[in-house]
Design goal:
With 435 residues, the protein is an alpha+beta fold. The chain is 27% helix and 17% strand. It has helices at 10-13, 63-82, 161-190, 194-200, 241-254, 289-299, 327-340, 374-391; strands spanning 20-30, 36-41, 50-52, 96-101, 113-115, 118-120, 202-211, 217-226, 257-258, 269-270, 276-280, 364-366, 403-414. The strands form 4 sheets. It has a 5-stranded antiparallel beta sheet, with helices on both faces. Strands 1, 2, 3 and 13 form a 4-stranded antiparallel beta sheet that branches. Bound molecules: zinc ion (3 copies).
Length: 435
């Protein structure tokens, strides 16, 4: 049974719904004399435990912690577009585009089509044509935005579930190959060797994975050209938005990942879908820095839950027919379990990632020089909390290099929702900031 969260402990956790509860202490010892300067112990905390925020990025698990993650992601994405947080404002002059790389089609799905604000028929009539299972290949409906059939196949038996989960599993590798090919394409366009290009240009990016309703991932990425030292250095004059756009287009269309052949599943080359969107990021156009940062930050807190799948891994006691998921998700999961048994596809670890419909990549990644890091933002916040704690007399001011902090912590359970709606202040924790 999880220990209830002590009243008032919310101040430590920013309202986390599933905090980790710790018991223990921290001793602050003078390194020169060995004298105990200060002791913090959870004995005096309500319930004798210190709740620590779960810090999940996933809104489906803990909305308050995901909100902190979203806000931090927004800050760092925006800093990479317009400067701030130590990134110079001149970064806004670097060529920068917002790219969407989609998955190819794995079969006809219900879709909301609109043109100039008018909703059109999903798949207009094709003279009584049917699939081998006797299902019509047309759908005359004008689907509403919340129609649960959106993204689901017209005929599930025709839909290529194996292809869809293999794409999800290979998408991170496809992205990696894309970034390598993009550098090579830029070098070729500039008439430079790869080494000479590295001396002039750094390609920086931040990307998020988003599940489409049909159950395949696609990627949104900010791709920026910097000088050799990253955002602090300007790229050469020949590096323009137009050149970057052409290079991305060529690289995206050139790359593929071939899956290993397995019994009943010949090797297949997986590529990006035909829909490729590349738009310049500007401060006042259609795709602005605030829009892009908001979009990326929003998707950084989501996983596959919007496709109606499970929010957890499958265990050996799960029976696929009993899972509380939509049929479309169930068929993806079944394909992962089926293909996961083939030794030739072992490395894709499809069974372990069946709940994610085969995708096992990170949802939010960026190149080293894109911007500041989430760790730096969190470090700033911890420093503020430490200052507060010192000012409030809850923690001694540490003498750098001379004070030893000896800690002894034990896991003591996971908290239930605190059940308070009092607007309690954030931060101001009395515990050591080193946690
Ligand atoms: Zn939390
Ligand atoms: Zn339809
Ligand atoms: Zn069919």
């Amino acid at each position: 049974m999880p220990t209830p969260v002590p009243a008032g402990a919310v101040r430590h956790t920013g309202g986390c719904l599933q905090p980790v509860l710790l018991r223990g202490r921290a001793d602050y010892i003078d390194g020169g004399t060995g004298e105990l300067i200060h002791r913090y112990t959870t004995v005096h905390e309500p319930g004798g435990v210190l709740p620590i925020a779960c810090k999940t990025r996933r809104a489906s698990r803990c909305p308050p912690c995901a909100e902190v993650y979203r806000a931090d992601t927004y800050q760092l994405i925006r800093a990479g577009l317009t400067g701030g947080k130590g990134i110079p404002a001149t970064v806004a002059d670097h060529p920068c585009v917002f790219v969407t790389l989609t998955a190819p089609s794995f079969g006809s799905v219900h879709a909301r089509q609109d043109k100039d604000g008018l909703v059109l028929a999903c798949r207009p009539r094709r003279k009584g044509k049917t699939c081998p299972h006797g299902i019509g290949l047309s759908c005359g409906e004008k689907h509403s935005r919340d129609d649960h059939r959106l993204g689901e196949p017209l005929c599930p038996d025709c839909y290529d579930y194996a292809g869809a989960v293999l794409f999800n599993a290979c998408a991170p590798e496809l992205w990696r190959r894309f970034t390598i090919t993009l550098r090579r394409t830029l070098a070729r366009q500039a008439g430079l060797t790869a080494k000479a290009l590295d001396a002039q240009i750094r390609v920086s990016y931040a990307k998020v994975a988003e599940y489409q309703r049909r159950g395949v991932v696609h990627f949104h990425a900010i791709i920026r050209l910097d000088g050799p030292a990253g955002p602090t250095t300007p790229p050469p004059a020949w590096a323009t938005v137009a050149l970057l756009t052409i290079a991305i287009d060529q690289a995206a269309r050139a790359v593929s990942v071939t899956t290993p052949a397995a019994p009943g599943h010949p090797a297949r080359a997986l590529t990006w879908g035909r829909q490729l969107d590349i738009r310049p990021v500007t401060t006042n156009g259609e795709v602005t820095d605030t829009k892009v940062a908001g979009y990326v930050a929003k998707y950084a807190t989501k996983a596959a839950e919007c496709t109606g799948t499970l929010d957890r891994r499958l265990t050996h006691t799960d029976r696929i027919t009993d899972l509380p998921v939509r049929d479309h998700a169930r068929r993806h999961i079944a394909a992962c379990l089926r293909l996961g048994k083939l030794p030739q596809l072992k490395e894709l670890r499809l069974a372990a990632w069946a709940h994610m419909l085969g995708f096992r990549g990170h949802f939010s990644t960026k190149s080293r020089a894109y911007s500041i890091t989430l760790g730096a933002l969190r470090g700033d916040r911890a420093a503020h909390q430490r200052e507060y704690a010192i000012a409030a007399g809850l923690q001694p001011a540490l003498q750098p290099g001379t004070t030893l902090v000896v800690t002894d912590w034990h896991y003591s359970g996971r908290g239930d929702p605190p059940g308070t709606d009092l607007p309690l202040p954030r931060g101001g924790q009395s515990c050591p900031g080193s946690l």
